[in-house]
Every structure is written in structure tokens, then in C-alpha cells.
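This part of the workshop introduces the protein records we will be handling. Getting from the letters to the C-alpha cells is the skill we practise here. An example says more than a description, so a record of this kind follows:
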Amino acid sequence: MSDGPFDQPREHREAVELIAARAARARAGSGALVVLRGATGTGRTTVLEAAGRAAEAHGMRVLRARCSPGDAAVPFAAVRQLLGARDDFGQVAGEREQAEVLRRALHGHAAEGPLLVAVDDVHLADGPSHRWLVETARHLDRLSLPILLAVTERSQYDVDAPRPGFTHTLPPALVHTRTLAPLTGDSAAALVRARFPAASPSWTEDCVRAGGGSPLLLRALLDDLAAPDGHLAVPESTAALYPGAYPAAVSWWLDSAGPGTAEVARSLAVLDEGWDRGEPLQGSPAAALGPAPHPYGTLTTEDRGRRRPPDHAFDAGRCGEAPGPYDETPGPYGGLPDPYGDVSGPYGEAPGPYGEARGRYGDAPGPYGDVLAPYGDALPGPYGEVPPLPDQAPASGLPDSAPETAPPHGTSESALPSCAPETAPPPHAHRRPEPPTRTTSDRTTPDPTTPDPTTPTRTAPTPTPAGRDRHGRGPAARRTAGGDGAAPAALLAGLAGADPARVAGWLTAMTGLGLLRKDAEGRPRYAHPLLRDAVLTGVPAARRRAAHRAVAEAMLHHGAPTDAVAGQLLSAGPVGAAWAAEVLQAAADRALRAERPQDAMAFLRRALDEPLPGGRRQRLLTELGSLECACRDSAAGIPRLTEALRQPGTPQDRVRAAVALGTALAGDGRARAAVEVLGVVDGQLADRPELVGALRIASALLSDWDSALRRDVYGLLRAAAARSPEPSGPAARALLVRHAATAGLVSARDAMRQVRELLAEPADALTEPFLLGTAAAVAQWADELDEADRLVDRGLAGQRPGLLHPMHQALLNTRADIEAARGRYGLLPAEPPVVFAAGPGNTHAHILLALVEQGRTAEARRLADAFDLGAAPDSFELNRFLYARGAQRAAEGDHAGALHDFLECGRRQAAREVVSPVVTPWRTAAAECRLALGGPREALALAEEELRLARVWDTPRTVGRALRVLAAATGGRHGLELAGESVRLLRDAPSGAEPELVAALLGQGRQLSAAGQRTRAREFLREAAERAERLGAVRLRVSAEEALRAVGARSPGTARTGSAALTGSERRIAELAADGRTNTEIADSLHLARRTVETHLTSAYKKLGIRRRGELRDALGPDRTGGRDHHGHAGHPGHPGPSAADRCRGLSAQP
């Protein structure tokens, strides 16, 4: 093979130079032997041809022969290629005599001039030729003939033991050997750039990986990627290559290695393919291998290690897309097929699907070390009885097809633990106690010398015990997981019927050549997915499925991780054994907890291909349908949930399926169909009042998506409670408390008293989420924000991952409301929020208000204009967005447009019987617009009604806000008195009412200015500006500064409060303290006295307006924490925000 347009790599040039030097000595009369060794595809033929051309250029005659397996049966076939046909050859009998004739012919050629005898692939020569060549080489030095014998020989570690090499019987002094190493990264990259000078570093690295250190494969790949206008992208499938030089080269490489090695290579490709599916990595499979250097060199590209976006990764943004078109499905409930049928039969609790039988090892540890269960609990031994790998696999290596039934795995269905627990671990840490303080006279001041237990303390990482990896696994566990190659070697040997020791050696050798690379877990992987796909080219799909199944069984036997076994099952056909569904369900649960909902759906879909008991199938269908509906990228969600409801199952599971289906229908704009679905199941479970109660509570929540339906459902709920309050249950009564709060019928004190009493009552697992979510909302409205936080945490902790539930998004909405109530205006998304085609959500309303308060008017306008509210469904979320858009319009001076939005919000809320200002205080906002438009009388009426309703709820926030606006509408001395009352009330409010206090201070300052009391006005306005700056409320701060200038105060210079007011030293020390450093550690690291550190911290506390060390992280601002809150905002550490699964789940249900 000639180089063609390529430059010769350095390895080839050095080999050609060695042969040229020996050729020069041969021309001087000193014969020699040069053996050029190398693995398949390293360029032995290319080097030999280049050396032949160089010899001819120096006047040598070149005799060439190329050996092949087809000539093995023809005696002296290779030698006769060298010397040509001879008349006297057939006149003698016997190998010795024939050899002598051929030797005389060689000497005759040498007498005419120097010779280069070039024999390619001498390891394939027929026996007589091989022996003749060896004997010729043995005597070259003593005959002083001008002959250089240059032979190439394949030298590669194969699974099948090789025969002795060409030089096996020759004295070492006679032999000059050169072994061609694989291409280094630099040499391979140079070849790529020589062919494609404009290639990017990342594309070059992809080519280098797919080439696997082999010039043969690299050149074939570049031939396939050539295009008229440049080059094609490096694919992961050979189907995208034309004309197919690369897969042909890989096929030739496999054929050269022999059938045993080829089967091991294909088995590894099957294993590798399953690893990709079972344990998704960050980036594409090629990039997942990381930027590890090539064993024989390093890549010199500036993009080394750059990761591609993961193909499999869950895209949170996609969850914001419009639901699929389910309306075309016929049925009686708004387009649904009838989900009920004649489902009957016993609904008693079925025994768990996992059994209690043990495997053959009983309680003793298994021979492969402790196997980790899906939740980290160790299971003794392997998963039940598994037969050992066969001593000999079929001749083909990979099984031709899967057997009808799986081999027995113990006497139970499975020994895996349950993979669907009732509750998930809480997502947030427990609250910690307050730090100690020092008392000075009658004031309590923070003690900067005492570490705050609410702040994470910087500690050294826990040392990894000797002999353990980063997961804490010892050598046995690493072998079980495939971390050091021992388990893959055993698996491959069992699949291919090969010697495990030879397989282990082959893996090591191929890694050295560059065809394989170890991943982060130490497993041997093909260097690029394209190389793996080429190895599998030609393997029938049935054999591949059967091989994946065999790999899964073998991995299960060896105690491999659940995800790895499940990854193999994804590519296998149905197994028909209980363990397969168990493994897939466990892997789905792990994927959900790792925030990989797309992978969880893939595992669940595959699990449904296995035979399952009815109840088990219903649970899996419910979970899968929930995920498909929540992620909004599949049209199968609602039909899947409908199918789940048709399946037999326990009453509890039927309720869960019905609630999930109802939640999906409500989110799709079909709230009435959702309530009807729940009503039908309600009628089927009349003998289970606790389950009926859960269904009716869910109906009440889902009715929030339809105003008329909400009135009807809550009317029925009130009537049922009046007839018999106790059977209604605490969750139903909590809903009535919430309804009374929004209807302006109860005070905050009384509502919280009732809610706390209900929380003290026992609640069953199905209704407790409703109770906690409802109580959290009431606590947030009552300004019991810390208690509301705890209730949200409890509610989210009780949610089952992957199960659609109306309270899940409601809890997240309550968390957002809590943060908004605290005035965390700086918690904005890093990227523009996703715009839902179905209309705005609660998150959009909060983001819009935050943008307004931050003074980011252009961004707020873009978000407000992104939705067509005329096409949005009639829901509480639309009402909240109308209020937020009104605030945005008012901030831009469009008071008429803002007034329209506020009044429309109020009209819609009144239709839902939501009149209290605890949710959307639209009256005060509309009153301010009326004042701006010159309508004081209408403003006064709105403000007085707001104050009346606020006094019913009777919290400082609602009453203080209403008093502030009423003061502005009233004016005069009475207005000044009302403004003062508003400020006094809000000063004494619980923590969290700071935004309303700033607005009240601003209002009182303006009232004092209007009354001519400019000196007092400046005091209130300065306090408002300082508090607004500390809060991060840009709009309020700008308004306060404008009001200060209006009363003759100088424009504020540098910030005196807030994060911007800190000096460089104060900020540096505060950031170290926020990171958990003690004062002593800070002093040592900055070479300061400890007293200096304390002084700086005290000053920082004052400027930031905080009293505890644990508040530093929030007060310093989101830019330094880098955290994310529930909107994906840079957030505070107590609430790290929802997981990807949270963002891909449930639908809200709030007023």
C-alpha cells in the first residue's frame, strides 16, 4: 500500500532508513536479514514497498513475493514468486532437492548484481518456502553475497496462540529486527492534517481515536470522510460512511487476527455497547473516554478533552414544550379511550414481587465479593443461583439466538431488593441551631468569633482507604464492577469460549496499540464508537440480541452493578425471567435519582417487554406514563396511563394511576375529563373510604384548572364535610381551610391553628402529600415562612420519583412563593426561561416580577410579550401572570395597560372565589394605577376594600401594604397617619416582609415631603434606599434615590450598605467565612491578626444587614455562590432547587 497523498509518519521513515542502511552494506557484499514486525494495519507492507523503491533507486534489483493463506497448499509458492518459473524445478523430486535448485537460482541472480529479496507477510508462507527462507537467511553472512533479505511478519497478541516466528531458530546475531509501533497521537494528527489542512482540532481528535493507532484504519477512514467541499463529520455508525473503506479495513483486521480473536473482539463490542446504555456518561461515548493520552504519545490539539453535548442527556428545556396531541384519541372523557372496562377481582394486597428466598450461598458472602444493591445495601453473594459460565461456548462464539427460557436463578423470582420505595430521601438538609451571640447591654450582636453551625465547615476530604477506589470499593468489588479488567476478561472468555488468560492479555495488548482505551471505571472500551460499530458490522441482529442477553446473565452472575446489567438488557430481546424485570426497574429508579429521566423511561419501556404480573405491570405503566407526560416529549403518556388504569392491581395502585392520569389530563387543558376519571374510580372503590377521600381531594386540586368546575367541586367538598366532618380526613379539611383563606373568610391566626391541629392527626400515605402541600401554602400566606419551608421539604421528601402527582408542582410553586415573599429579587435564571406553548406558568410570573424589581425592563418586556394570553387556558397560573404583567407595565409607565391587567386578574380570581389579597394583591396595584391616571375616588374604593379583606387575614404584610396604598389615596394628615401606621406595623412583622417595609418607608417619605417635612422625609427615604440596596431591589432603590433628590438630598455616592459597600479586605474575609473557614484559619491564610479578622467581619455584618455567619453566603450575592434555586436561578444554599426529575414532573394546583 503506497502512501498516496500522505506524508510518511515518523515510525515508517525510521524503518525505511534501517532497511536502506542494511541495503547499502549488501551492495558492498555483506548480506543481511532484516525482519520488519508489526501488528495488523501498522504499515508493514507500506514500509517494505518504500524500501524496495529506495533500493531500486540505488541500482539494486528487487525480487518481491507476497504470501497469502491461499498458497499454503502449494509447495514453494512464495519462493517461486521471487525467482519466477524454472524449467529444471520440476525435474527433481523431494523438498531438499527442489530447495537446492531454487538456492542456485538465487545465487545466479546475486552474481548479476546486488539483490533486495522482499517477502511480505512471511508468516503466511507455505511450509517449504518458510523453511527455505529461514535456511537462506542462516547462511547469508558467511556466503558474502550482495543479498539483503527483508521480510515482514505479523506480530500481534492474539487469543489463539501463534506458531513460532520466522527467527525462532536463527541466531540473534544474524537478525536485524524492527517492530512498527502504532501511530502516536502526534503522528496520527499530522496524517489527518496532511489530508485535511483545515480540519478543526476536535474533528482531528475524533479521527485519531477512530483510527485506533493504525495507519490502515486511519487512512481508510479519511478516504470515507472525504467530500468535495472538505470533509464529513465523524459518525458513530458505519452506515454513514461511503464507499465503506473503513469497515472493510476493520473486517480485514478481524480476519487477520483469526476466528478466536474476532469473536472476542465482537463480544467486547457487544459489552461496550451495553455499557453505553447502562451507565450514561457526560458527553458522547467517544468523549466519555476522556482526554487520556495515547499510550505511545499525546495529542497536541488545543481542544483535547472537550466534551460534546450528551446525546442521551435529559434536556430540561424540552419539558417546557407543548404537550402532544392527545385529543385525537376517541373516548368519552374529552378524547380519552374508556380507561376502565370491566376491571374486577380481588384488590387485596398482593405479596411483594421480590420474595424472600435466598440464593445458593445463604447468608455467606458470595465468591465475587459483596454485591451492591440498588440503594447501596450489600447483598450477600450473587443474585441467586446462577450457573457458571460454560467451559466452551459455541464455535461461533456469540450465541446464535436466545434460549426460550432463562437459566434458573435460585428458587425465588429474584433476590434484588424492592426498587420502588414509598418515599425518597429528603432533598434538603435539616435546619441547624442558631449560633451563640454575645450580649452587650440591651442589644444582642453577632459574635464574629464563633463559627456558625448553619455554615458548612470546610473540612479535608475523607481519605480513601488504601487499596480502594474513589467509590470506596476494594479490589474484589472493583473486579466485580469491571474496574480493573478482570471481570470483562472473564465475561469475554465465557462468551467466546476462549482462555481467560489469553483474553486478558489481548485486552492489554489492544489497549497498548490504541484500539482500546480504559474509561473512568477502568473498563476496556473501543477508542471510538465508530470502531465498535465496525467490529459489529455483519453480526445479525438476532445474534447481537442473544449476545447482549448472555452478557447480562454473565454480569449478573459476576455481581456487576445494576445499571450495567440493565444496559445490556436494553439491547437484548425479552428474557422471560423475573430477574430481568427486577434489574430494569431497579436501574430505572437509580436513573431517576441521578436526574436521568430519559434513561429511566428507556429502562421502564424495556421492562414492559418482560412477562409481568398484572399489579406489577400497572405500577410500571403508571410510572412510565407519568414520566412521558411530565417531560412533554412523547405522545404516549396519557394512553400509557389509560392502559395502566385498565390493568388489574391493588386499590392503592389504582388510585395512584387515576391521580396520575387526572394530573396529566388537567395539565393538557382537560380538567373536567380529569375529575370525571377520578369520579369513576371513586365509584369503584366505595368500600374504601380512605381511598375515596384521596380521590376527592385530588379532584378538588385538579379543579383549580377550571373556574366553574372549582366552584362545583369545592361546594360538594364543603357539603360532605358539613354532613360528616371526621370521615373527610385531615387533608380534605385542610383544603377547606385553604379555600376559606382565599375566600377571605378566616384569619391567618385561625387558619394556622386549624392547620397545625390537622397536621397532628394521623394521615395515610395517599393523602399526606395533599395535607403537607396545603398546609405549606397556608403557612406561606400567613408569613410563617420557616414553617412553610419545613412543610415543603417534608412534602417533597414524600413524593415518589417518577410518579405524576398534583401536589409535586404545587409544592415547588409554594417554595417559589416563599422566596418571592422574602424578596430574593437577585435569584434570576442564568438563561431565558422556556416559553410554554400552552401558556405561562407560575415560574414565569415570579421571573417577570423579579426582572421588574431588578430594573431589567427590556428583559421583562420580552418575557411579558412572549405569550399570547388570549390563547392561554383559564387557570390560576394565567391569573398570576396577568398580575406580574401588570407590574411590568406599571414599571414602564403604561398605567392604563397595567390597570387592565390588574382588573382582569381580579375578575378571574373572583370567578374562582379567590378574593383575599394573600395570593394576588391586585386591588392595591390597581389603586396605584388609578392614582397615576388621576382617579383618586376609584383608587380610594379599591384601597378601602383591600384593607377590609387584609384585616380579615390580619398579617402585617397584607395590612401594611393595604395601609400604604390607602394612605396614598387618602392624602393629607390622615394619609400621613396611615403611612406611619403601615411602617410601624411592617417594622414589627416577622422576617421576610422586607420588600413591603421598603415600599412603606418610601411611601411615608413621599407623604412627609408632600406635607413639607423634608428633613424627616429624607430620613425615611435614606432608610428605604439602604434597605432596597441590601435587598437587591433595584426598582425600589432607584425610586428612593429619585425621591431623595426631589427633597434636596445629594445623590448617593458609593454604596454604604449591601455587598457593593464592602471593601476589598472585608469582601475577601467574608467570602472565606462564607466558605466555612474559621476566624483562625482566615487569619492564618491572610497573615492577619485574628482580631483584625473579627473587626472586618463585624463591619461586613453591619453593611450587609445580617446577624449571623450563616447568612453571609446569601448576603454576598448569587455571583459568588454559583448555586441554583428552584427556578434554575443562582440561589441560596438552603434550597438548591429541583432536580432534573423535578423539572420534568407534575403539574401545579394552587389558587
User: Anything to note?
Assistant: The CA atoms of residues 267 and 978 lie 82 Å apart. The first helix runs from residue 10 to 27.
